[in-house]
Write a structure and sequence with these properties.
- With about 140 residues, this protein is of the alpha+beta class.
- It has a single domain, classed as CBS-domain.
- It starts with 6 loop residues before the first strand and ends in a 6-residue tail after the last helix.
Length: about 140
C-alpha cells in the first residue's frame, strides 16, 4: 500500500493536475473535498476526456473528468480480494478508506510486487511442515 497518496481538489484545472502529476511523478491523483474522497483521476482520463476530445486543459476542471464512483476497500482487505476486485472492475488502483478517511492506495503494481514475497512465505510454510512431520511411535 502506498501511504503517501497525492491528492488534489476537484476545482483545479486539468492542466494544474497534470503539472502536479509530473512534479510528483505519479500516474494518478485522488480527488479530495473537505477531507473526503470524492474521486480519482488518471493520466488515461486526461488522454481520453481532454486531449482526444480536443479540449483545453487549462479550461477543464478535474471535477468534470474524474471518476466519482470510486471503488474502495478497507484496511483489512486481503491482497487476493483486492486483486479480485481490480480484475472484476478492470481497475488498477484501489483507495483504502477507513471511516470515510483516505489512508492509502493499493495498486496493481503493489500486488505484483507483493506476490513473490507471498510465494516465498508459502514455500517456507510448506518446507517447515515437511520438516516437522510427527514421528509415529
Amino acid at each position: 500500500m502506498t501511504k503517501d497518496v497525492k491528492t488534489i481538489e476537484p476545482s483545479i484545472t486539468v492542466k494544474e493536475a497534470a503539472q502536479k502529476m509530473v512534479e510528483e511523478n505519479t500516474k494518478f491523483l485522488i480527488v479530495i473535498k473537505k477531507g473526503k474522497l470524492v474521486g480519482i483521476t488518471t493520466e488515461w482520463d486526461f488522454v481520453k476526456k481532454v486531449v482526444a476530445e480536443g479540449e483545453t486543459s487549462s479550461k477543464i476542471k478535474i471535477k468534470d473528468i474524474m471518476t466519482s464512483d470510486v471503488i474502495v476497500i478497507g484496511p483489512d482487505t486481503e491482497i487476493g480480494e483486492a486483486a479480485s476486485i481490480m480484475a472484476e472492475h478492470n481497475i488498477k488502483k484501489l483507495p483504502i478508506v477507513t471511516e470515510n478517511v483516505l489512508i492509502g492506495v493499493v495498486t496493481a503494481m503493489d500486488i505484483l510486487a507483493a506476490e513473490p514475497k507471498l510465494m516465498e512465505k508459502i514455500s517456507e510454510l510448506i518446507l517447515m511442515t515437511k520438516k516437522s512431520k510427527p514421528v509415529a511411535g
